[in-house]
Amino acid sequence: MSGLPVRPELVGEVPYGAPQLDVPYCLNVNENPYPPSDKVAAEIGAAAAAAAKSMNRYPERDAVELRADLAAYLGHGLTADQVWAANGSNEVMLHVLMAFGGPGRTVLSFAPTYSMYPEYARDSHTGWTTFPRRDDFTIDPVTAVQAVTEQRPDVILIASPNNPSGTAVDLDTIRAIVDAAPGVVVVDEAYYEFVRPGTPSALELLPDYPRLAVTRTMSKAFAFAGGRLGYLAASREFVDALRVVRLPYHLSAVTQAVARVALANADELLAAVDKLRANRDALAAWLADQGLQAADSDANFVLFGRFADRQAVWQALLDKGVLIRVVGPEGWLRVSAGTDEEMAAFKAALTSVLGTEKGRLL
């Protein structure tokens, strides 16, 4: 970008994104490793082909039918006008900050958390601030409320389950934060389908809090990462604010059509969730047996460590064909729950590193 009159805060920045490498075992971006069946793939193809016949026309601008399907999937008495959809939950979040953030406003989150949040803030000219989680990655409701009261952020982002730790936030803590918040609160439930049975969703709180929103994605549990569909549930007024800042025709006709097919096949696409949840728990137990710390996770990944040189461990695993993620506090690494074959490959690769100088623990 040398010589171009870019915004000062973008000078020296690089595009966000985890490495995309051609390796045998990709366990770094928390995808569902089980692709759609031939039956579902054929239905997706047929829907795309049908949409292609009217490709000369703009798509339905506000994706009303898709939003109705999403509302039916979420339940909780939601209707289409209480749901918003966009190209991944990243775009949904950006819409939130475009509507409720901006110059002179701030967004608060609880660190460590999703590394895209400060990017949303930067791109929307919103001030970015964080408050620390406890050492076990939970949020202390008392100190969190104090921070909200003192800082008075316009937007609060709460990831539950948290990324990169996988920590679910209990509803009492969320309720306390929302009660103290002067602005809007967004609970990011991108990994909610992977929580332990009985873990409640923040969707339960929506009837009582018109300034609360809950975001979800079809990129994780739904095995639909390539489809790029994220969505949000909130009050009608909250959704209307997002409609003001969205670009016209932001969701293509193909995206809307194939996402509806995926939702119609939700039972099949989500069938692997129990397996991935079991592999996650088995992986966490195995890591602990190796003398490592493993964060308690309600997502489809495990944060583990702590290594004296996590970059060296990451590279050593990559050299063996296993790609994981360098993310979170210093010393920690994150690995996605995968198939039995992927988990065996990861364990074999990590075992070969542990006990060597590269695998030295803190």
Description:
There is one protein chain. This protein is an alpha/beta fold and 362 residues long. The protein has two domains: 111 residues, Alpha-Beta Complex (Aspartate Aminotransferase, domain 1), CATH 3.90.1150.10; 232 residues, Aspartate Aminotransferase, domain 2 (3-Layer(aba) Sandwich). The protein starts with 24 loop residues before the first strand and ends in a 9-residue tail after the last helix. It is 37% helix and 14% strand.
Annotation keywords:
EC 2.6.1.9, 12 helices, about 350 residues, amino-acid biosynthesis, transferase, Histidinol-phosphate aminotransferase, Aminotrans_II_pyridoxalP_BS, Aspartate Aminotransferase, domain 2
What is the topology?
Elements: E1 25-26, H1 38-52, H2 64-74, E2 83-86, H3 88-100, E3 106-111, H4 117-123, E4 127-132, H5 141-151, E5 155-159, H6 171-180, E6 184-188, E7 212-217, E8 230-233, H7 236-245, H8 253-264, H9 266-269, H10 273-289, E9 293-294, E10 301-305, H11 310-319, E11 322-323, E12 333-336, H12 340-353
Helix pairs in contact: 1-8, 2-8, 3-4, 3-7, 5-6
Enzyme class: transferase
GO molecular function, one term: pyridoxal phosphate binding
Pathway: Amino-acid biosynthesis; L-histidine biosynthesis; L-histidine from 5-phospho-alpha-D-ribose 1-diphosphate: step 7/9
